[in-house]
Design goal:
binds uridine-5'-diphosphate, kinase, nucleotide-binding, globular, 9 strands, Carbamate kinase, EC 2.7.4.22, nine-stranded mixed beta sheet
Length: 235
């Protein structure tokens, strides 16, 4: 499937590369170059970044924080990633705009749907931090929400494996990769590739999710052209 307007979901972990936490410069640069190449090729791109490389709400619970406070810290982590990716994409010559669901006007624009659409139409990559702006949600759900409201053709969910398997392919040699499945299948089988709220939102808005591996160079550009291995989750 060729994807003209895409929402790409990158976990925080994806930006931490081999160091496993925080930001890894080389990994950030590789991902930024791939996104920049796709933007130059004419795709309209919004990116929702996670924050797990800095902080997840559940970690805060273990430290005695309440959920809303812990999630606020988690959302701030996603804004840090958005600012890092904005810089990395601009460093390779493509304009980018970080936008936050939580107002931080000294750091970046507030997220506003019409403004994000204008940026994308003008060739800027939009990087969306802050998730949904609410505690008790994840950036996967934020990605489904933004993909629906920005009228994206698909949500590209970057993972460590090249699609959805019947079992963990690292643990079970007989695991098979699905070419496609429905949102209802994904919810019924409780597939962990995205949370149920994200699948439900995608189902209700008729949004296709493309699950692909971020491991190969140029993978984002390839998936947007409909090339390479991936699993399509469709209505
Ligand atoms: N978060 C939140 N609301 C949102 C999105 C994220 O409260 O709409 C918080 C939550 O604490 C979460 C953290 O931000 O654990 C980081 O996001 P996420 O876990 O989705 O990041 P990823 O696993 O994709 O790196």
């Amino acid at each position: 499937m060729y994807v003209k307007r895409a929402l790409i979901k990158l976990s925080g972990e994806a930006l931490s590369g081999p160091i496993g936490a925080g930001l890894h410069g080389e990994t950030l640069g590789t991902i930024a170059a791939d996104i920049a190449a796709a933007a130059r090729a004419g795709h309209e791109i919004a990116v929702v970044v996670g924050g797990g490389n800095f902080f997840r709400g559940v970690q805060g619970l273990a430290k005695g924080l309440d959920r809303p406070s812990a999630d606020s810290i988690g959302m701030l982590g996603t804004v840090m990633n958005a600012l890092a990716l904005e810089h990395a994409i601009e460093a390779v010559g493509v304009p980018a705009r970080a936008m936050s669901a939580i107002a931080m006007p000294a750091l970046c624009e507030n997220y506003a749907r019409r403004r994000a659409l204008d940026h994308m139409a003008n060739g800027k990559v939009v990087i969306l931090g802050g998730g949904t702006g609410n505690p008790f949600f994840t950036t996967d759900t934020g990605a489904a929400l933004r993909a629906a409201e920005l009228g994206c053709d698909a949500l590209l969910k970057a993972t460590n494996v090249d699609g959805v398997y019947s079992a963990d392919p690292k643990l079970d040699a007989s695991a098979v990769r699905y070419e496609s499945l429905t949102h209802a299948d994904a919810i019924r089988r409780d597939l962990k590739v995205m949370d149920t709220a994200a699948f439900a939102l995608a189902r209700d808005s008729g949004l296709t999710i493309i699950v692909f591996s971020l491991r190969n160079p140029g993978c984002i550009s390839a998936v947007l052209k409909g090339e390479g291995l991936a699993t399509l989750v469709t209505p």
